[in-house]
Amino acid sequence: MSKVLLYLLASLLTQWVLAQDQATTLCGQSDFYNSTLVPYSFNNNAWGDNGQGYSCLRIYDDDTAFSVTYQWTGDASTVKGFPYVKADPSRLPVQLWNVSSLEFSAQWRTYVKDTENWSDEEQAIAMDNTGLRVNTAVDMFLSDNAENSTGLGPPIEIMIWQWFTPTVLPLGHAESTPEKDTVEVAGTNYSLYHGWNAQGQHVFSWLPHKNLTSVDTDYSPLLRYIYEQGLLSGALYMGQLEFGTEIMHAGEETHFEAWNYTLRITRDGDPDALPRPTTTTTSSSTTATRTSTSRTSTTTTMSTTDSATTPTMTDASGATSTANTASSVSPFAIGYSSTGFTFIALLLGIFLLTTSYTLMDNAS
Question: What is the pLDDT of residue 258?
């Protein structure tokens, strides 16, 4: 009996190890995945699917990285999707004036298929040639009703862009006053635009004055500016917090990759609440630069022409298609690196499996 139990244990452990190395892929319009390793959920969120393309979101490296492979043609003025990673909702909804910090850190890159090793200039040409219209952004949905802020179609959206192609600008870019509404966060100036999308949502969008490929900052000053300037009420509830890429058009297969991400809210009174940072407001014109897509450098820049055409439009329907709660960090990850733990478990599984076979051979 002990030999049988040992064999079963070895088999189960080996299967578990193999399962940890498998990536999760989401290709359905609203396919979602709730991680048990990190406090996030993921959604392919192709909410504007026009039947003329595809999008697949892949989660890997113990859910600490994800990529999106997509190609969308048809009307280039409409959003096809916003594949995203979604923050643990345990501290949501929260009223804007009770947000102590909005911590966001990540690295990312976007490239047309087979151009990932090209220079910045060559990649920019490839993006222009394929008609790429995308951005990378943190996205939030708000309402004056706490329950509505976590459901379908909240009336207010706040986006913080980090990277975008020069062919897109946010809603309201013609009527907004970005030269006045500019705030510096972690050495980068962001300017505010706001307008209404086709779904009737009031959308506020912060644009950086240069494209970024990594961020490690607290974005709460951008939220605070909006209600301190009387543009929105601080009593509004934020019910959803996401990070992803908004896609309007890609004539060829294109890839978005993100890794090392942290996205979380702390509220006034939380034990880990940070001191509120000082907001610096400046006046400057909005310009865009394309940064290096190298994983090790974000300092090389190339100027681009600010030639936006149709503004982007976003929608909460796909973004809220899964109300499932992301699980907490797995206890198996505590005290070990994921790679080291997997390696140790694999060795143990091989040892137990070999031992069980040896015992059975000796018994026979």
Answer: 98
Backbone angles phi, psi at 244, to 5 degrees: -170, -160
Q: Give the pLDDT means over successive 10-residue stretches in the chain (364 positions).
A: 55 54 90 97 98 98 98 97 96 97 98 97 98 98 96 95 96 96 98 95 98 98 98 98 98 98 95 68 39 28 29 34 27 32 52 57 57
Task: Determine the pLDDT at residue 272.
Answer: 83
Cα separation of 242 and 106, whole Å?
A: 12
Cβ(41)–Cβ(32) under 8 Å?
yes
Q: Is 335 left (phi over 0), alpha (psi -120 to 50) or beta?
A: left
Question: How many Cα atoms occupy the beta-carbon half-sphere of 43 within 13 Å?
Answer: 25
What tokens were used for 23?
């990536």
Torsion of CA 339, 343, 345, 349, to 10 degrees: 150
Q: What is the SS3 assignment for 2? A: helix
Nearest to 194 by CA among 235, 219, 167, 227: 227
Phi then psi for residue 156, to 5 deg, are -130, 140
- For residue 297, how far is the Cα from the chain centroid? 20
In contact, 9 and 352? CB cutoff 8 Å: yes
Tokens found for residue 334? 């505590």
| Radius of gyration of the chain measured on its C-alpha atoms | 23
pLDDT score, position 273 = 82
> pTM, whole model, 2 decimals?
0.74
How far from 123 is each of 76, 110, 120, 130, 294, CA to CA, in Å?
20, 9, 5, 11, 12
